[in-house]
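Why does this matter for the project? Reviewers at the last site visit asked to see concrete outputs rather than summary tables. In response, this paragraph embeds two records directly. Each consists of the residue sequence and, immediately after it, the corresponding structure tokens. Nothing has been edited or filtered.
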Amino acid sequence: MKVLNKRHVLNLFLAFLCFNISYSAYSMLLDTESKKTTLSDYLLNNQVKYSANTETVDLKDLRLSDVKGISKVKVKDSELNSELIDLKDINRCSLMISNNLLVIIDKDIKDLKNLYCLDLCSNKINSLPEEFQHLIFLEILNLSNNKIYAFPAVITTLNSLKILNLSNNLLESLPDSISDLKNLEKLDLSYNKIKELPKKFFELESLQELLLSNNKISKLSKKTKFLINLRILDLDSNNLETIKNLDQLSKLQVLVLSNNNLQKIDDLQGLSNLVVLILKNNKITSIDCILNLNNLECIDLENNYISTISQDINILSKLRELNLAYNKIEEMPALNFTELTLLDISNNQLKNLDLLNLIKLESLILKNNQFKVWPSNLKLLKKLRTLDMSFNELDNIPKDVETLKKIMQMNFIGNKIKSIHCNLRNLKNLNYIYLLSNPISKLLFYMFNQDSQKDQEKLKQEFRDTFTVLYNLYQKKILHFYFFDDLPLEEIEKLPIEIRNIILGYFCDLF
């Protein structure tokens, strides 16, 4: 009798696995096909949802495979008990047909001339009929998450169009005729395969919001400067290595350039109205070139190669959020941002920090640095709600923490904390405190195994004071950690009975 070796067994198993996967996929396909329905079939037993207040017709999430005869549909508002009216007679109608199984749009769409908004997202559409050109009042068109390979030329005939969403499709280029959309204000082309924009594109002078994230753009055209009304530009996750031709976009307020290959930022000086600048996940080494952008309120430079920060950063007096996490910063100047509410300098190499005048700060994140001493002027942070000092080298919680009256969450995981010098019970808003993986969790075992009776008594007192505070917080469900996570149960059994009972009672409460 032939014996199967391991290779044969593995091959049989893989074949069986592939068969099951294929069969499951086939079953799912059959299931999808069986649940398809047409608009005419749906109308046999159902009334189309319609809101007279918003003039919205709702056909989304119905697994419709076609919408033939849609122009002949009659609707009524059941809540208002209105009479049946023709869909095509609704003034400024919004038609929602998202999340269905449409591949094509029927030609009788042309009769819905009063359409103001048409939502066709999350279908399987690959093209649009020429009859779309009759939708002369259409202002909003959503075709996101479909199967469109080529930009439908008929869209460029929609002269009233103000908002166009073609995100999550398969577009590689745009036609020159896109410049005919003279009233277009917002264009979302994110998650496509576009490498560059045609020259005619930059004639869209009404454009205010341009979303191009997750494409393959490697450079910006010199004609970008002609998008004079642009307020939001999103180029996240492209192939940009330099920033050029943006400095004349004087109305730009939001610029997103994260997840590219940028090494420097030296062409933003003219962006005098810029409020939000997102540059995370690049290779930037210096931020000096943005220090003249006086209206900045949010800067995100997470995960770059920045090692030094100039004192001049305090010039940005309107700053509300500053993220410098995951860089190589060893030293920070004294910070004097009177409007700052969020500061994240986590995952750097800081050893000290002067929080000079951060009077509105609500969230301070300094985890994974090299702090052995606490940041100075901590007691000035009267509005602080979240404090994260985890994974540093702190050996205590200082008395200044008592002054943080609005603090709600504190994280000290992974430090060297042995003592608490403040009365945490006075922090009435405190909801969470994390102290896992600190020496304080081993203190109990240590203090009852000292050779010196004097040291032992001192440690007993220190422990009792600390434990009383922490246990009280635990009972109020504020303390969230296994206090004695590093202490074996067999060692607990060796301890004096009054201490042992407290600990074992603590563990019983946990479970």
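We now turn to the second protein, recorded in exactly the same manner.
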Amino acid sequence: MYGSVRWVSNFGKIGIVGVFWGKMENLRNKKRGYEQSIVEDEANLVPDSKKSKLPALASVIVEALKVDSLQRFSSSLEPLLRRIVSEEVERALTKFSNDKLPASTSPPRIQGPGEKDLQLHFKTRMPPHLFTGGKVEGDQGAAIHVVLVDVNSGSIVQTGLESAAKLSVVVLEGDFNEEDDDDWTQEHFESHEVKAREGKRPLLTGDLHVILKEGVGTLGSLAFTDNSSWIRSRKFRLGVQVFPGYCEGIRVREAKTEAFAVKDHRGELYKKHYPPALHDEVWRLDRIAKDGALHKKLIKADISTVEDFLRLLVKDPQKLRNILGSGMSNRMWENTMEHAKTCVLGGKLYVYYTDETHNTGVVFNHIYELRGLIADGQFVSLELLNHNQKISVDSLVKRAYENWHQVVEYDGKVLNSLTSSKNANRASAVSIVDNNYDPNHCISTIQSRQQQYISSEPSPQCQTTNNH
């Protein structure tokens, strides 16, 4: 509390006075005690051997004289001490009542009706980690965009001098403003900037400035020269702020990205791919370390690529879960599956025909997910199946998985080799399959449909069993 030092000084004096008065009171009590004992001893005519021995008369007299001297001294000193204590207490109370709050605790300034409230904002999400020497990019290799926003309206500022401002790109500590409160001060923002370690190159190199155009800017080529393992949070953030000389007199709040780790480029050899490719080695998936125990289990089961992983995940998720075993927890299993499902599929299609006429069959995509039914030479997508067709699909999928060696990979050559009286209808049916197939279709959407129409497919709960 403000003024605490003054209080300590003032009341220190009062404390000394209190000690003095306490000593005086003790001496008075001693004097009364001696006087009382003398009176009692004189009144007691019969000596009692059991009573304690009385003090000598000379010592009693000396003590009495001392008390009298102190009493006379205190009588003359008392008015002076009272005046000093009174003045000090009054001065301290006056000082305390007149103290003002520090400037740092002053209430926030109320924004006037004509004032602007602007803020920079990153529109691109960052990946969980980057590598030294590599280009700084957003999630999935996206360019990093920043915009100038009017906080009151939420719209991008596209006109005025502010919309063409120059920005500086800086590196921030990963734990800066974790509570996501955007109302920081410029001083607070700058106090969390990270500079290069002593003897090291600049932490961030490349195009360290951005020019807004109609309120939108894109970060140029940037690269980190050092990892983030040496700071407390072990992560960095990118930040942008208005370059000095621009937007004078206007407070434009700075922007920050999500926190991300920066690793040495040597670790790039072992990095995960976002999203993974079908031909990627299976250890590129989250939670599967290269040459680790889980990786070795998968290789032993002839699952060497992401494509192999996804195909078994579709055909028999319980078998895949058992292969990984208790070394992969439920959470790890979920993370690995979600990462695998972000894989972009190719355009291959597979058909399982029930007979040599090729009049009835089921169509699968690249990772053996059900795409639809061929009935009477016509393709019917999952959404259009009636009740009887759903039952038919159920049994056909079981047969296809049990006899996968009979599944035909569809392409133009296979179609041309299947010449018969019904080839024209079948060609048009397969053509419909192609037109309805989106190579970039999400796996999770197809999987949910497959579980809806195929009762024999294991339930989602089976994907998390046998986890210990």
